[in-house]
Amino acid sequence: GLLRYFKAGSLTEMKDKLHDDVYPVEMPYESDTSHAIYTALSFAKHPTGSDFDRTLTVPGFFEDMEDPKLVETFPWPDPARHINPDDCRRLVRESPRDAAVVGVIWSAHFQDTCAAFGMENALMTMLAAPEMYRAVDRRIVDFYLKANEIFFEATRGYLDAILIGNDVGSQRNLMISPEQVREFVLPGSRRLIQQAKDYGLKVIYHSCGSIEPVIDDLIASGVDVVHPIQALAANMQPQHLHDRFGSRVSFCGGVDAQELLVRGTPDEVYAATRQLREIFPTGLVISPSHEAILPDVNPANIEAMFRAAHEA
Fold first, then answer.
1. What are the CA-CA distances from residue 277 to residues 22, 104, 262, 305 (Å)?
2. Could you tell me which residues come within 8 angstroms of residue 150 by beta carbon, excluding any fewer than 6 positions away?
């Protein structure tokens, strides 16, 4: 696909050809059951060894538990056994010198807490046994704080920012109420944000979907960049976000990956990207409106997006 279209031998070479000035580095993690930090915690109550174990609909380890003291009955992994500081240093130091280096740490404690109970049970536990929900979430955040400390110490002085991910939005609205986001999600996120700030890092906070009702809360929590602008989600129109929040936070995204990049022409992508630049003279990292480019996107549309982003 993309590498062949751009005649590149590697992802790094392709990014260089496109003049991509943001270089993400994912925190390395290796265990017998996981090869990525975002799959480090597996809560399937009846594991099958398949990818299905990672879905939020399977019964979770804490499915029927309501006593917070039972949190330690889960076999929590020790990040120090699975994160090699030398690998962290090597991956970050391989980044281009003129790029903004972003450590992708995910630390998706909301998703993981939902998986820990099974999503339906997690949302019921929020209301029926809130202290149990909080206890599991706190323990998950503790795991990520320890993992992140290893990564931050190993890469001190080389990172510019980090990306935290917690999907709380859907196409039309938040998945839970704004009050529940404030009560059950943001306390853990603030701990992770403060840790990054203590290392002098900018914080990019990822959530797919329509999250406009809690962007003020993210700003108050210390978020520097909201990722992404999911262009077709309700109340996430770029002009609206710029007018309401643009003086207080930056954004990343905005080039629609649901319809425009998939079905549009290169000329249409170019025009939409130029419009984004007009709305956001500053304060926007132009990128697709989701965190991945899927195989159904025409490479010519990617080329048009980058051309529009860089041309004077």
1. 17, 25, 21, 11
2. 79, 80, 83, 85, 88
Report the 10 Å Cβ neighbour count for 211. Answer: 28
Pair of tokens at residue 44: 């399937």
Domain positions in the chain are 26-223
CA 100 to chain centre: 17
Whether 143 contacts 89, CB under 8 Å: no
Peptide bond into 299 cis (omega under 30): no
CB proximity list for 278: less than 8 A, separation 6 or greater: none
DSSP characters over 109-156: HHHHHHHHH-HHHHHHHHHH-HHHHHHHHHHHHHHHHHHHHHHHHHTT
pTM tops 0.85, yes or no = yes
How far out from the chain centre does Cα 47 lie? 26
Sheet holding 250-255, edge to edge: 22-26, 100-106, 161-165, 202-206, 225-229, 250-255, 284-288
Task: Evaluate whether 190 touches 107 at the Cβ level (below 8 Å).
Answer: no
**Residues in a beta bridge with 253:** 229, 286
Task: Please say whether the beta carbons of 115 and 183 come within 8 A.
Answer: no
Distances (CA, A) of 233 to 11, 214, 230, 237: 29, 14, 6, 8
Domain 26-223 listed as CATH 3.30.230.10: no
Q: What is the pLDDT of residues 256-312, one digit of tens each?
A: 999 999 999 999 999 999 999 999 999 999 999 987 889 999 999 999 999 999 998
